[in-house]
Amino acid sequence: QAKDKGRNTYHIYSQAVHRDLAKKLEMVKQLRHAVEQESLEVYYQPKVELLGHRIIGLEALVRWVKEDGTVIGPDQFIPVAEDTGLIIPLSEYVMRTACHQLKRWHEMGFSELTMAINISGKQLHLPDLVETIVDNVNEARLSPRFIELELTEQVFIENIQSHTNFMHSVREHGMSLAIDDFGVGYSSLSYLKNFPVTSLKIDRSFVKDLPDNEDDAVIVQTIINLAKNLNIQLVAEGIETSEQVEFLLSRDCGIGQGYLFSRPVPAEEITQLLQNYQGLMPIDIGS
Ligand code: C2E
Ligand code: MG
Ligand code: MG
Ligand code: MG
Fold it and tell me: Could you tell me which residue ranges the EAL domain spans (predicted)?
């Protein structure tokens, strides 16, 4: 009986594995199709000056809009894209779309807006990544100084020579370089000294419980001091309340992003926002 039971368990297990695998393959197929048809969409989230609420830049965030209209977030397909190599054409599509869109906003008169683009660690293995990026920027007739590349902290911690070369090359071309989700990958901070970073984005997990959580308040204060001492721009991610804005302003963190200002939205909505409010966020939070 014990043997039978084992066999049954195995049978059920293998069915489950099979089902998962079939699901994953179907997803890969659909994602490949979406990338080939360029039916992915790029949403944009404003980066805002906390004092005065001026929009100073946008971050490009990819979405997969299914045929039935459901919008799927990147956390659900970027890992699959990375495992299958689809991340390469996907990223190039995002890059091209975001650069052209930024150019349109510049031409509308919002000529100082910057564009932040997320780069996957998997892309860093491409030997000509910087050239590809620069080609896209040139093709859109943009100055590279308006382009900021965001890399998650993991990439900095790994300390691989090709990564270092990439970062220096990015800076030599006049683009900016941000560390995304800063603070979650605890490690020696010495890499900040070794990499030509221009901006730090405090991970939203530290912002979420401000101002009440004292540990988070101390951590955020420490990151603010660190950025100041290193002369690096600081951006707080995930701002959802005016209390968080007040706290950040009182500690001299002047730039943020979050649902309080705007969720990531399609380009047309950003255009509306820019045109209707002259580049400011229409928000009264008493600061
Ligand atoms: P990220 O670059 O750290 O982007 C910030 C994420 O936080 C976005 O999620 C955004 O919608 C979300 N967010 C912004 N403000 C708030 C807030 O106030 N509250 C909360 N709860 N969330 C907020 P999203 O768009 O789902 O993107 C998730 C991650 O996927 C991004 O994290 C980024 O690492 C990655 N990603 C997005 N687009 C691309 C892309 O084109 N290429 C690559 N390689 N990665 C991308
Ligand atoms: Mg980012
Ligand atoms: Mg982030
Ligand atoms: Mg993230």
Answer: 24-278
Taking each helix axis from N to C terminus, what angle separates 161-172 and 129-139, rounded to the nearest 10 degrees? 20
Digit-by-digit pLDDT tens for the chain (287 residues) are 555 566 666 677 678 888 888 888 999 999 999 999 888 999 999 999 999 999 999 999 999 998 898 999 999 999 999 999 999 999 999 999 999 999 999 999 999 999 999 999 999 988 899 999 999 999 999 999 999 999 998 888 887 888 899 999 999 999 999 999 998 876 667 788 888 999 999 999 999 999 999 999 999 999 999 999 999 999 999 999 999 999 999 999 999 999 999 999 999 999 999 999 889 999 877 54
DSSP bridge pairs for 40: 64
The residue behind tokens 């080609």 is 135
Q: How far is the CA of 200 from the centre of ligand 3 (A)?
A: 10
For atom 46 of ligand 1, which residue has the closest CA? 118
Any residues with Cβ below 6 Å from ligand 1, and which? Answer: 45, 61-62, 73-75, 78, 91, 94, 118-120, 150, 180-181, 204, 237-240, 257-259, 264
Phi/psi-derived region of residue 257, left when phi > 0, alpha when psi is between -120 and 50, beta in every other case: beta
Give residue 128 CA to ligand 1 midpoint distance, Å: 25
